[in-house]
């Protein structure tokens, strides 16, 4: 069998990747020392060439030959067997490739066998980087000096390093080579550079490790130097990397305790440096200039007289722009010999010594020169930096946040005494730094969110298109230079790809959590973009106030007042929401302390060390709280990792199986796949005999094959382009959706009919161009509408002007007719004024007439309303037919919206009206008005099918919402679940405390609504690719979702993410029920019923029933039933309008049958108070109609018959017995909210 280690090419290693010792060649030192001795004085030489003297890389120990045959191998390593590399002679080129080498003392016998070095390690450039200022011989002892390096390979993967330069006397080494030294000889000192390389950016930890190493090296003889470094390297190779989460790995390297902080999430890098350093070097405005230079992909050079600052500042900047990733050359430290790198024509971020500032500035144009020591940002071309400003609102917010940072640790020590334990003092400092780092990361993430918040409004997910022109036009004029440069960068393109992939990263989480209520409501509609009255009112305020509207713009909300389950909708300001979003409490962390290091170069000691680590992790798992699944997952991850490298493959797979059940978010799929591939035949047979491990192997292999099939391409990002050839319907649909004008398929089909009236059914590209241009020009004109203050006072804050007529004469004066989503009004000319014409819901009649004028009759429009006796007459001349169509459509949409309590009808009517305007504008022919009638959807419906809503239905129905609002066509509502709010919820708990409505759509998609405002809180949670059958709220912290793929997915109600699964069922999960707060039941189609411990997610009991297709479980008086209602059991037929009621108290009593009128089948039923609500469907005129019947449980009589939807009712749920929510099948796809009486 192939060794596991040989198959783990891409698996994370331990802390150490390699340790390299760099210094001057021994023959050069000998020659220099002899010259100094002969001259009788010590002369400091200017420079010596640095060379690689040693390379130490894991694994450092190997098992005996018979163990190797069994494929076991220790050490956290991704590389083949390797031992130390020692530089021999400079003239031997083979030494750099690992041939026989010579020790640092120059002895001819200190040779080793041929070995290899890490494949990504560049030994040629490394000496220069370890001594970027050159290797200088000194006549006196100098202080140790640390700096940091970053290496980037051709694939963009980064490796990190910490380097220490420390000095040793030359004469000690020379004496060991047989030279005599008198007491009068002069002492010379040579520096050695020790470079510790890791795949992970643990800069502070690596520096601390080197500090511990130096305490040993300074007291050891030169002959022990190599062995001490090798032992040190072997110890670091034993240190595992903590998984994302809250577990820190702590180990002891005397005299210090050193900790490795985990990543906050799998999408974020580990942070082990002081993020406040840039704020100590630069003012916020200069820091924003540097961020802008990165976002616009400039050529940026950092300067400092301290090499360490270069990398630390550069790494901070990389974290500040996260999740945008710098994709250009990144070399934070350039040695003197590498300055020609700065001539590269591409964008880059590099750093060099301050001594080279003048030379670099003079020799190279178009550089952004960042002086870390002086805190200045300049251009090499001129004294003024030609960079656009960060968008003003985001800039002001960032500066305000930074002013509130507490960055002085000394202030934290004022009330403390002098500490005597260095490790305690270090722990206090680390805790303070961790909290400050979290705050800074929130501030910088908020900056990125504020800059790119509205990008998602201009994305088309179906066709992967970003409408950059529309996004750019929607920016403030003062911000457009910034976006003009940013939108064409590689860094932004990669960011767009992640957005189109719906990546749930830190950016997405903050953007969702800080959306205003108006923005959430606006995202539920497909309203054309226009400035609201609130935004227009800001135009009359100061320019800064007008610009800051981007943070809190009240976007169009076409709905009227809607029912809320917790009182009125809260109008929370953006500022308040951002404060809440930034609180992000410091999560409690746990430390896992590694055992004391063994002698690291002896195999059996290393194996015992692994076993001791496994035992400690087992104890940690046993004492952890059973309901703390997050902590348990991290311990299982670590133990599985240690078991893997210790050769205990089956134990490792068992740990990873437990990890998969408790937190799939950190599941190491690549590692487990490599582990499975390395299993010998005997162990693979044992694994196949253990059902859970066998299922894990199958799942991992399936996921691996799926990833390979998908490849590395996450999908291209396209920019919208106008079509260049004639379009049939399918192509026309795609181009309209890509343009962002409208998504709905039905509307686009009607638009296609309108643009192809009287011709072949294909749209000319020129017609499309004119139509698109007219649409965009109309949008732009609306942005420039200047309303007088009197008009702003009469209109609601969320109203927008969508259409403005030319100057016309009316029976109330001369002016322009304006149309919002709610009303018509007249803007009088001469003395600007406001005259209300009518609200659309108040219209009684609209007709075209004519008004005599001299010998002519001018077409006019007459509008009759319920609030005015006289008709309003306006001489619209050539515009009269268009306005007549638009007003009638808006009137019909308003009536539909009021009757069906569904504001989306009004929004759809508005879109239809504006499309009519664009069609007439682009066709400019006699058939234009006839073409526009194709878009009069609601006006036509009013005549073709009377949409009268029965009185009972109208009185009971409170509101409708659409979970498919961002999709091209309705999706069936499969399951609904209401979860109550939490009165004691606070920002620290991570939730808003509001009740939620969970709606499962087709193909495993779940949409979450805030039931306080009925705005979408989470647009899409993807749970596999199969249908959701059932949902269950558990402990107000979790939602369990049973799927057709036999998995129960567990969603955190706080984070809205799924990282836990229950996989014990063998067929589709069909039902779930909650017993006491710690016990839950689930059933699957083949008859298996399982009881679960809610806190530990462990299976408590399982049994199987002999039934054909078990549909559901319900708990009633300690017994499990398929349905329940106190002393009655209600059953229904899916293909018949009948209910059967069984009396549980008297089994001999015959059941009763209830016939449901006009019902062809029942799909769901629930009990609410003393009623049973039954969802089903009837048929009328060959069309399916969703019906709801409300029955009295005592009288067994129908109390109400509700006409609910235009397709069958598929789901019902109760909201605290005050409301019932119904979800409909695909042709309707909406959720209705009903009042319970």
UniProtKB/TrEMBL annotation:
Q: What is this protein called?
A: DENN domain-containing protein 3
Q: What is the lineage of its organism?
A: Eukaryota, Metazoa, Chordata, Craniata, Vertebrata
Principal localisation: cytoplasm
Outline the segment boundaries, as ranges, of region: Disordered. 62-109
Biased segments, Basic residues type: 79-91
User: Coiled-coil ranges per the record?
Assistant: none
GO function term, MF aspect, one = guanyl-nucleotide exchange factor activity
Keyword annotations for this protein, in alphabetical order, are: Cytoplasm, Guanine-nucleotide releasing factor, Phosphoprotein, Repeat, WD repeat
Q: Does the keyword Metal-binding apply?
A: no
Name all UDENN domain ranges.
78-506
Name where it's found: Cytoplasm
- How does this polypeptide assemble, per the annotation? Forms oligomers. Interacts with 6 of the 7 known isoforms of 14-3-3 proteins.
Q: Does the keyword Coiled coil apply?
A: no
């Amino acid at each position: 069998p192939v060794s596991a280690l040989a198959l783990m090419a891409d698996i994370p290693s331990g802390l150490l990747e390699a340790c390299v010792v760099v210094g001057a060649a021994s023959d050069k030192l000998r020659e220099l020392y002899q010259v100094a001795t002969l001259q009788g004085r010590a002369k400091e030489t200017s420079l010596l060439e640095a060379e690689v003297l040693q390379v130490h890389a894991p694994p450092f120990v190997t098992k005996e030959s018979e163990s190797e045959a069994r494929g076991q191998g220790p050490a956290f390593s991704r590389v083949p067997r390797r031992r130390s590399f020692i530089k021999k002679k400079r003239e031997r080129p083979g030494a750099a490739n690992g041939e026989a080498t010579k020790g640092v003392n120059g002895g001819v016998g200190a040779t080793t066998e041929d070995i290899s070095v890490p494949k990504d390690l560049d030994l040629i450039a490394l000496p220069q980087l370890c001594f970027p200022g050159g290797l200088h011989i000194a006549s006196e002892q100098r202080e140790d000096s640390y700096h940091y390096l970053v290496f980037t390979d051709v694939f963009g993967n980064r490796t990190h390093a910490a380097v220490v330069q420390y000095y040793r006397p030359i004469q000690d080494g020379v004496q060991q080579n047989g030279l005599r030294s008198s007491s009068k000889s002069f002492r010379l000192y040579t520096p050695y550079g020790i470079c510790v390389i890791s795949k992970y950016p643990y800069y502070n930890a690596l520096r601390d490790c080197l500090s511990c190493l130096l305490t040993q090296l300074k007291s050891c003889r030169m002959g022990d130097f190599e062995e001490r470094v090798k032992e040190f390297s072997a110890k670091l190779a034993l240190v595992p990397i903590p998984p994302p989460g809250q577990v820190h790995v702590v180990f002891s390297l005397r005299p210090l305790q050193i900790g490795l902080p985990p990543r906050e999430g799998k999408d974020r890098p580990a942070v082990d440096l002081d993020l406040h350093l840039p704020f100590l070097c630069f003012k916020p405005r200069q820091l924003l200039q540097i961020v802008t230079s990165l976002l616009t992909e400039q050529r940026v050079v950092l300067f400092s007289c301290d090499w360490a600052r270069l990398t630390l500042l550069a790494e901070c900047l990389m974290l500040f722009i996260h999740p945008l990733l710098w994709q250009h050359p990144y070399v934070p430290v350039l040695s003197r010999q590498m300055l020609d790198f700065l001539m590269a024509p591409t964008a880059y971020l590099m750093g060099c010594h301050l001594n080279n500032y003048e030379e670099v500035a003079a020799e190279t144009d178009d550089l952004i020169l960042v002086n870390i020591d002086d805190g200045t940002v300049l251009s090499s071309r001129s004294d003024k930096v030609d960079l656009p400003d960060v968008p003003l609102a985001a800039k002001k917010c960032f500066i305000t946040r930074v002013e509130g940072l507490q960055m002085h640790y000394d202030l934290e020590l004022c009330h403390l005494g002098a500490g005597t334990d260095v490790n305690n003092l270090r722990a206090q400092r680390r805790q303070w730094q961790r909290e400050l780092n979290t705050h800074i990361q929130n501030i910088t993430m908020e900056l990125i969110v504020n800059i790119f918040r509205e990008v998602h409004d201009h994305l088309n997910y179906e066709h992967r298109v970003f409408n950059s022109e529309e996004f750019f036009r929607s920016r403030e004029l003062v911000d457009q230079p910034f976006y003009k440069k940013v939108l064409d960068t590689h860094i932004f393109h990669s960011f767009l790809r992640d957005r189109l992939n719906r990546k749930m990263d830190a950016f997405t989480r903050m953007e969702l959590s800080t959306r205003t209520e108006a923005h959430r409501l606006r995202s539920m509609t497909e309203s054309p973009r226009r400035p609201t009255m609130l935004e227009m009112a800001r135009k009359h305020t100061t320019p800064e106030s007008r610009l800051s509207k981007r943070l809190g713009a009240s976007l169009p909300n076409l709905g009227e007042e809607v029912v809320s389950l917790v009182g009125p909708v809260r109008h929370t300001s953006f500022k308040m929401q951002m404060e809440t979003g930034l609180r992000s409490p410091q999560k409690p962390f746990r430390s896992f302390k590694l055992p004391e290091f063994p002698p690291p170069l002896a195999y059996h000691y290393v194996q015992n060390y692994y076993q001791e680590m496994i035992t400690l992790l087992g104890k940690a798992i046993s004492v952890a709280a059973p309901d703390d699944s997050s902590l348990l997952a991290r311990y299982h991850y670590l133990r599985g990792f240690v078991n893997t490298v210790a050769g205990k493959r089956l134990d490792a797979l068992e740990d990873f199986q437990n990890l998969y059940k408790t937190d799939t978010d950190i599941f190491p799929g690549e590692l487990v796949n490599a582990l499975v591939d390395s299993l010998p035949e005997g162990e693979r047979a044992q694994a196949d005999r253990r059902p859970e491990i066998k299922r894990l192997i199958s799942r991992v292999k399936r996921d691996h094959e799926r990833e390979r099939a998908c490849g590395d391409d996450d999908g291209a990002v396209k920019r919208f382009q106008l079509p260049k050839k004639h379009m049939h319907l399918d192509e026309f649909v795609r181009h309209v959706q890509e343009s962002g004008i409208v998504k709905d398929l039905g509307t686009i089909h009607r638009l296609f009919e309108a643009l192809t009236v009287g011709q072949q059914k294909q749209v000319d590209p020129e017609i499309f161009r004119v139509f698109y241009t007219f649409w965009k020009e109309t949008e732009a004109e609306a942005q420039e509408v200047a309303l007088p203050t009197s008009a702003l006072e009469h209109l609601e804050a969320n109203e927008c002007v969508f259409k403005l007529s030319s100057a016309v004469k009316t029976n109330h004066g001369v002016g322009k007719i304006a149309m919002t989503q709610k009303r018509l009004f007249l803007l009088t000319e001469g003395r600007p004024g406001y005259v209300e014409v009518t609200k659309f819901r108040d219209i009684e009649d609209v007709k075209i007439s004519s008004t005599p004028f001299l010998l002519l009759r001018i077409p006019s429009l007459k509008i009759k309303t319920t609030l005015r006796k006289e008709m309003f007459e306006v001489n619209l001349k050539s515009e009269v037919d268009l306005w007549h169509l638009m007003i009638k459509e808006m009137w019909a949409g308003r009536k539909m919206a009021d009757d069906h309590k569904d504001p989306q009808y009004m929004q759809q009517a508005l879109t239809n009206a504006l499309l009519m305007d664009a069609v007439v504008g682009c066709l400019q022919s006699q058939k234009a008005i006839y073409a526009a009638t194709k878009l009069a959807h609601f006006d036509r419906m009013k005549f073709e099918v009377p949409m009268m809503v029965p009185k009972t239905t109208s009185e009971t129905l409170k509101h409708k919402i659409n979970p498919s609002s961002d999709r091209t066509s309705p999706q069936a509502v499969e399951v609904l679940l209401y979860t109550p709010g939490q009165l004691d919820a606070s920002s620290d708990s991570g939730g808003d405390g509001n009740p939620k409505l969970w709606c499962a759509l087709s193909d495993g998609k779940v949409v979450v609504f805030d039931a306080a405002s009925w705005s979408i809180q989470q647009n899409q949670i993807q749970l596999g690719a199969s249908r959701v059958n059932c949902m269950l709220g558990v402990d107000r912290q979790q939602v369990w979702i049973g799927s057709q793929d036999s998995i129960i997915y567990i969603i955190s109600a706080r984070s809205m993410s799924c990282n836990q699964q229950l996989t014990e069922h063998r067929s589709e999960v069909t039902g779930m029920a909650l017993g006491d707060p710690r016990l839950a039941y689930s059933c699957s189609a083949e008859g298996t019923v399982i009881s679960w411990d809610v806190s530990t997610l462990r299976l408590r009991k399982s049994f199987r029933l002999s039934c054909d297709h078990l549909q559901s479980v319900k708990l009633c008086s300690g017994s499990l039933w398929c349905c329940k209602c106190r002393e009655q059991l209600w059953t229904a037929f899916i293909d018949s309008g009948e209910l059967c009621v069984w009396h549980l108290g008297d089994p001999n009593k015959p059941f009763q049958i209830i016939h449901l009128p006009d019902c062809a089948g029942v799909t769901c039923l629930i009990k609410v108070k003393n009623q049973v609500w039954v969802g089903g469907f009837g048929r009328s005129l060959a069309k399916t109609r969703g019906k709801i019947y409300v029955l009295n449980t005592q009288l067994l009589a129908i109390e109400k018959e509700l006409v609910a939807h235009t397709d069958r009712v598929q789901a019902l749920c109760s909201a605290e017995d005050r409301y019932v929510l119904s979800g409909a099948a695909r042709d309707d796809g909406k959720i209705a909210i009903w009042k319970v009486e």
